[in-house]
Amino acid sequence: MKNSIAIPLRIANRGIARTRDLRESLDMSLQLLLTTSCYSCPADPHFGFILNNLRFEIFNEKEGVVYNSDWSRDDLGRIEDLYSKKISGSSKNFNTFAVKLKEAVETYEKRLGNVSASMAYIMEERSIYITIKGIILATKEEYVFKTQFNVWNY
Fold first, then answer.
1. Which H/E stretch holds residue 128?
2. DSSP bridge partners of 136
3. For residue 85, what is the enclosing H or E element?
4. What are the angstrom distances between the C-alpha of 69 and each of 57, 98, 125?
5. pTM reported for the whole predicted model
6. Cβ contact 37:46 at 8 Å
7. Could you tell me which residues come within 8 angstroms of residue 24 by beta carbon, excluding any fewer than 6 positions away?
8. Tens-digit pLDDT profile for the chain (154 aa)?
9. Cis ω on the peptide bond leading into residue 42 (within 30° of 0)?
10. Domain boundaries, the chain
11. Separation in Å, CA 115 to CA 22, 69, 84, 98, 150
């Protein structure tokens, strides 16, 4: 099995640090994708998860959506139609952030196939639980990645 570059990038004695564990490499790659705001990487402006771009917006817990708090600057919302998307849902649902997450994973993590994503907002905890599932193409093994974000206006 090939070595994959470790993320975050670290310089080791023999160059860039690498990992032999494919699952660890996938975990690191997905964590980077999830925590990067879109349009923040000059080499590929679309890299990242668009939900991070809304971290300073108003979150409506009852409706499970994000409000546009700056109507004078609607370019991001208009381009992506982000302000109508639900936080909770799966990539099988229509109009959820999980659909955008699935699209990002399919675009940037080519080692996974049959990708699905789900997000669940737990109001009492003010946390968003994220699950990404897929098949590791090289080994045909099932893969599951789980993480959690705290809501930004907590």
1. strand 127-136
2. 112, 141
3. none
4. 6, 22, 24
5. 0.81
6. no
7. none
8. 456 666 666 777 777 777 778 899 899 999 999 999 898 989 999 999 988 877 667 676 666 677 666 655 555 545 457 777 888 889 988 889 999 999 999 999 999 999 999 999 888 888 899 999 999 999 999 999 999 988 755 4
9. no
10. 4-150
11. 16, 32, 23, 11, 24
End-to-end CA distance of the chain: 43
Instruction: Tell me which amino acid residue 47 is.
Output: F
- Residue 88 CB: number of other CB atoms within 10 A? 17
Query: Tokens for 103?
Result: 């699209």
Please name the CATH architecture into which domain 4-150 falls: Roll (3.10)
Query: Do 39 and 53 meet the contact criterion of CB atoms below 8 Å apart?
Result: yes
